[in-house]
Amino acid sequence: MKRFLTFGVLISILLFNQLVHSQINSKTTTRIILDEEYSDWDTYSNIGESNILKAANDNDFLFIYFELDNPISIQNSNSLTLYIDADNNPATGISVNGIGAEIEFTFGTRSGTAYLGGSSYSIGASDLFLVTSPTVWSDIFELSIDRNAIINSNPVFTSNTIKILLKDLDSGDLNPATSGGAEYIFVSNTFDPLQYSLNKKSGDHLRIVSHNVEFDGFFEDPQKPSFQRMYQAIVPDIIGFQEIYNHNATDMTTRLEEILPSPDGKEWKASNYADTWVASRYDILSTHSVGGFGNGAFLLDLRPDYNTNLLLISAHPPCCDNDASRQNEVDAIAKFIRDAKAGTGSITLADSTPIVVLGDMNFVGDTLQLITLLDGDINDESTYGEDYIPDWDTTSFEDSKPQVTNLPMTFTQGNSTGAGSYAKGRLDYIIYSGSVMDLQNSFVLYTHSLPSDTLTKYSLQENDTESASDHFPVVADFYINLNIPNNDTIEEYGILPLRENDINGNPIHLNQTKTISGIVTMSNELGTTGPAYIQDNEAGIAVYGSDFVSLLSSGDSITLTGDVGFYNGLTEMVYNAASSSVTVHKNMNIPNPEIVPIDSVLNQEWNGTELLEGKLLRINNVKFSETGTFTGNANYTLTDGTNTLTVRIDGDTDIDGTEIPSDTISIIGCISQYDSSSPYSEGYQIFPRSLSDIIEGSTPNPAITLIQPAEGTILTGNTNFNIEWTSTNVNNIDLYYKLCDE
Q1: How many CA atoms lie within 13 A of 339 on its CB side?
Q2: Quick one: which of 637, 634, 632, 612 has its CA closest to 622?
């Protein structure tokens, strides 16, 4: 049994009174946050004796900090008991060492008694909104209690002055040992708002979520509305799930498309190992078991948004008293990462590949388990190999340690009530490679703590998180910092070379950083992330990413630096935060669309140079196969009587909801592609920018006619003659003017 120090000789009453009255409650502006870091307590004075005992408050919570001689598990197998005289009246409550305690709570049994209004009530941690930190073995703890707690209609705190006492029921040790407890007077402090954002702070940040959804609750009808509201508020890019046992990848992607419909050209993908999952719109390149346990490793391709893969491990080690098994599993995770970095495992990671370990880790015992993940300190080296330094820059991994929304604490789990139930605690983690991932924002979504205006703004309900699962969504936003060379080392390219493909239909310059120049033919007409399109006098290319598209206006002459990306057959220039840039030179007229037949679009040289993909084109004398009205984010079919081409109507354009023409039309738009399999020779689409790009009526092809003189006539001076010439390319008119000039 872990004990306090035996306090020995007691200090005098005089010294004690001086201690508790003159040293405590000096006004401070340091906010206390229950986050397993304790420097925020340095400005608060000790109100205990031989062992440290401190108290603090804000408008909502009483905070208590204490130190022990030996580590304990705060919610298991100890007899440490907290007493609070909440009305500063020794004649009320239970009498113990000179105080009359309204609250008696034993941490090891997770239960206690409230003595209020002349009656006693059995209580659990939830009755006080008691949160203890950390959840692992420690000799330092901090906790919070709701200052506005009400038990059976009785307010707990009725005085601005309270008394606090800690007692080990087994040994009888007290802190303070002097009769009368430690006095604490609530003070008024003003603190800055807690720093988190429900929205990403920048469009180029990557939002990763970890969520234990409690026995497939994500798919259960009673919980579905809560999950839907939460995920529509969070808008995740990558989700690591735990506790999904009875559903497959199709179930997962179908459900996510219902909750978060994918934008044009994107779709949800999912993979799992045992009950651990990853879901994302990024391609999942491979899935692996980590050490034969129920933890999954997933290699994701973050392109075109970021020029890198990502190793994500979704973990769910065993709970409760299974310290040995839990340590084996985190040892196996450490081994998997070490071997992947060294090229000796089931996957090989390129240098600086971002690495994330997330999940319901169940860290409630030995502190070594977290140290193993952060520092690479493997416990069983005979089985899992030697220690290693996890991050690429020879430092430890970092713990995102997100705070609960609108609360100064970091719990991630706990919605049980009643005596004996566990208090809320931090069991869920997002650990990451800080050398290439800069944490920009993080939070634990807990709807119960959100103000009403925030709930309304995000269409959330107060009980959503606790109705959905006993774990709460853990969210972290990252800036991916890959340390790509400066722009002045990057060769400037024309667009045409970027259109060249290999025999598999992949761009030969894929993932290379290039600088190109051209005129913007489409900017944000398809939404804030694009794609936009630019072209020069030879070729065009799509541009993807909000940090690119937000800088573009149609008609701008620009120079752009970015990475060559590739998504379902479409070659793109994508934003890379480390090196990408846009320079706008001037605004010009948008180039005239090149006039081509459908056949030319369908038969581009994908094994070579795709000349038309990415360009602004016009197709004359075609009809829609469909009737009715256009619906945004939907495909329609154009036909010229022989060939057909897909028209994609984006929901961000003004075409959505207008009538589909029934007669012959001409259509203008940029050429895209959506083909999910090599050699990417199909799936071409045209994206009109607005309703004005759909021109009703038949249109003759441009023609130049040469009326030539009789055979044998010698042309001299200003002799006139005509050329009869039909062309599908409006640019050939330039030749007409050239002939006239000569």
Answers
A1: 15
A2: 637
Q: Concatenated DSSP letters for 611-664?
A: SSTTSEEEEEEEEES--SB--TTEEEEEE-SS-EEEEEE-TTSTTTTSBPP-S-
Residue pair 29/189 in contact by the 8 Å Cβ criterion: yes
**pLDDT digit string, tens, across residues 670-715:** 999 999 999 999 999 999 999 999 999 987 655 443 444 444 444 4
Of the listed ranges 204-213, 425-434, 528-537, 709-718, the one predicted with least confidence: 709-718
- Residue range 468-496, pLDDT digits in tens: 999 999 999 999 987 543 333 334 568 99
Grouping H, G, I as helix, E, B as strand and the rest as coil, residue 422 is coil
Are 24 and 183 contacting, i.e. CB atoms less than 8 angstroms apart? yes
The 3-class secondary structure across 352-368, one letter per residue, is CCCEEEEEECCCCCCCH
Reading the block at residue 396, the tokens are 């430890």
Tokens 């330039």, located at residue:
734
Instruction: Judge contact between 212 and 242, C-beta under 8 A.
Output: yes
Report pLDDT for 493: 63
Determine how many CB atoms are found less than 10 A away from the CB of residue 372: 24
Among the listed residues 434, 458, 470, 549, the one whose alpha carbon sits nearest the alpha carbon of residue 126? 470
- Is the pTM here over 0.70, yes or no? no
Q: Which residues contact 226 (CB under 8 A, 6 or more apart)?
A: 461, 463, 464, 465, 467, 468
How many Å is the maximal CA-CA distance in the chain?
A: 131
Give the residue among 295, 302, 281 at the shortest CA–CA distance from 337.
295
Dist. CA 335–CA 341, nearest whole Å: 10
Q: Is the confidence at residue 734, as pLDDT, over 60?
A: no
pLDDT for res 95:
98
Give the whole-number percent of the chain exceeding pLDDT 70.
89
Alpha helices, H only, 194-342 = 224-234, 249-259, 323-342
What domains appear along the chain, each with residue ranges and CATH number? Answer: 13-185 (2.60.40), 206-480 (3.60.10.10), 494-699 (2.40.50.140), 703-741 (no CATH)
CA distances to 60, 513, 715, 722, 742 from 718, rounded to whole Å, are 95, 54, 8, 13, 10
